Every structure is written in structure tokens, then in C-alpha cells.
Amino acid sequence: MADGTEDGTSGPVPFFTQARTFEALWPDIRSRLAEVFDDGKFSHGRQVARFEEALARWTGARYAVGVNSGTDALVLLLRACGLQPGDEVIVPAFTFVASASSVVLAGGRPVFADIDPVTYTIDPKSAADVVTSRTRMIMPVHLFCQMADMVPLLDLARRYQLTVVEDSAEAIGMRWDGAHAGLLGAGGVLSFFPTKTLGAIGDAGAILTDDRQLAETAAALRHHGRYGRTLAHFPGISNETTVNGVNSKMDDIQASVLLAKLTRLHEDIARRARLAAAYTERMAGTPGVLRLPTVVPRIARTDPVFYVYLVEVERRDELAVYLAGHGVGTEAYYPVPLHLQQCFAHLGYRRGDFPHAERACERTIALPLYPDMSVDDVDKVCALVRRFATRGPA
């Protein structure tokens, strides 16, 4: 049953769309884009500076550094934190490949750990088991709807003098005892890939930190190592290039879209929570559904944010094909654990090393969840999942 506030549909339910969002925001976006074209500066301009300042206010970070993707944000943050060739960084085996590939691109060596089977985030005990004399950093990844268990991870970092770099790419709006994701360790990152909770119309990302020197270094690294005109917070710094950087500046078109969407982010997060609650109510007790999202109580107060609605099911791949045949999009998160990816074969891991990560890769599927959805859409998806479970894929 629809909730009375939306125009439900019995048609296709894509995994993601923001058509209605853009229709509502278009006057604001158009006005901001007109300013970009009037300025004639399409990269690293006034809209980017405004977005950095607005994002810092929204998250509570002292500094926000806009870059051209969440992946680059991780690479530059690792470099700014002082990662050296051969340094080891502990990364969960169940996450997007960029979490580990960023370590390689920054010159380090990823070392994998297993995950908690309920939250899908890194298991602090497994992380402790893989610390060596070469370990320099640990990278918690905040996934799907909640943050990793930061209290034992921060304790582990203090015990071994490790730097905590948070892959908070999915975690905008998530907080731990009031601190925004990415601000509990040295720094964190955000991705603004279009499907994210705050999404652009292309690739974009940001680094969050409360450390001035770290922000200054990251800002220089994104701009060919130049310390001039790199961040709104640091006016008047020399243009001299003293470090080898890259070209990873955010463009002003993406910043314009993000500024407009930031004005309704609280509303969008609340909408996602209502849709997730509707899913949970309707999916409870469905045959073949092995686990629904579970927000685990923590020592500190935490604020979950539903980026995707992830469930564990029997016959995951068959269900995905069945739903696609009825116009419902899904995503597998993640079909191959990182320790079994070909690009990391040289690290010497084998099947069975991280059983919780491997099991999650075989059974998890993300159902559509985005503000443009209606509760009728949720009803359709849940009805199809129940039909598949009771009648099979025929």
C-alpha cells in the first residue's frame, strides 16, 4: 500500500534513478550552472570552493577537499598520511576493489582481514591478527547502512601506533557519537558517484579531515603538487611545486549539482530510512531470505544511513535474473572477495582464508533504494521476492 505521499507505479523499478529529483532541483541547478558559464572557469573554481565550505559545515569537518573521484580521494589521503612504498595497510576482504587498489596506487601493500558477518564491516579481531612489523595503517570501510566498529579499531591503532584512514565513501550522514564518518581517524573520504546518497552527475569525491597539515597536503597533491590556490581555507599560499602531485581537481559542474542536492540531503536520508523500514516490514519472514539489514547497537550513539538495502538470500544469482526479467534492477555487493581478485593474486591468499567475506560475496544482493522510489515500488519488489521464494524462478 502506498503511503499517500507518492505516485506509486506498477512499472519497472530500476536499481537507481534520480529523474524526479533533478526535475525538482533543476531551477536551482540551472542557476548555478549559468554562473559557472558566466565565470568561464569549469574546474577548481568558485562553485568548488563553495561546495567545500558547505560540505565542511554539513559534516562538521574542519576541512573538506574536493577531488575528482572517491578513489582518488583515498589515494591522495593515503599519500598525505605518509604512506611509504611497501607499508602495509589492513583492509577488509569484503568491499569495493578501490579500497585495496588505492593502497597499491599510493605505493603500499594491502593486507586483508575478515568481516563481521552481521554488519559486513571489518572484524577488529581479524584485523588484530594480521598486524605485522610493517603495518602502518588500518582502513575501516563503512558499508551499506552503518559504520565499522570504531572503538576497538581505534584501540588497535593506538596499541600498534597505526594511522586510521576511513573509507567512508558510502557514509555521508553516518555519525559515531556525533562525529561524522571520516573524522574519527586521521581523515576519511566521500564518493559522489551518481548512485551515492549525495550523488553528482559524474565522478567526484572529497577528503574530510580536522588536520590542517593533512588537508593542505591533500589539496596540493590534487593540483600537481601546487600549494597555491588549492583550498578555500588556505589563501595566499605559495604556488611553488614541492611535491609530485596529480590532476584530480573537482569540476564546477559537479560542484554545482552537489551544492543543490546538499540542500535536501537531510530529507533524502530520511526518505531512504522510511523506504528501508518498509522493506524490512514486508520482507520479514520471507522464505529464502537469510538475513535482513541489522543495525548493531554500539558503545557510542550511532546514526545509520541507508545507502543500499542489502539482503542475504538463497540462490542470489537466480533471484537477480528473475527480478531483472520483471523490470527490477539489483546489484551484487560484491561478487568476488578482494583476496580472490586476480589483481591481488600475487599476495598469496587462498579460498577459505576469510570465510565470512566469501559467504557474503555469494549471498548478498542489493535491492533498489533511492529517494525517487515509491512505497508501491517497494511492494512490487517484495512481492516478486516472495513469489520467487515460494514458486521458484519459473
Automatic annotation (TrEMBL):
GO biological process entries: polysaccharide biosynthetic process
Active site: 196 (proton acceptor)
Alphabetically ordered keywords of this record: Aminotransferase, Pyridoxal phosphate, Transferase
Keyword Nucleus tagged: no
Pfam families reported in the protein's UniProt record: DegT_DnrJ_EryC1 (PF01041)
Gene3D superfamilies assigned to the protein according to its UniProt record, in alphabetical order: Aspartate Aminotransferase, domain 1, Type I PLP-dependent aspartate aminotransferase-like (Major domain)
Location of N6-(pyridoxal phosphate)lysine modifications: 196
Keyword Transferase recorded: yes
GO molecular function, one term: pyridoxal phosphate binding
InterPro entries: DegT/StrS_aminotransferase, PyrdxlP-dep_Trfase, PyrdxlP-dep_Trfase_major, PyrdxlP-dep_Trfase_small
Family the entry assigns: Belongs to the DegT/DnrJ/EryC1 family.
Name of the protein described by the UniProt record: Aminotransferase DegT
Lineage, top ranks: Bacteria, Bacillati, Actinomycetota, Actinomycetes, Kitasatosporales
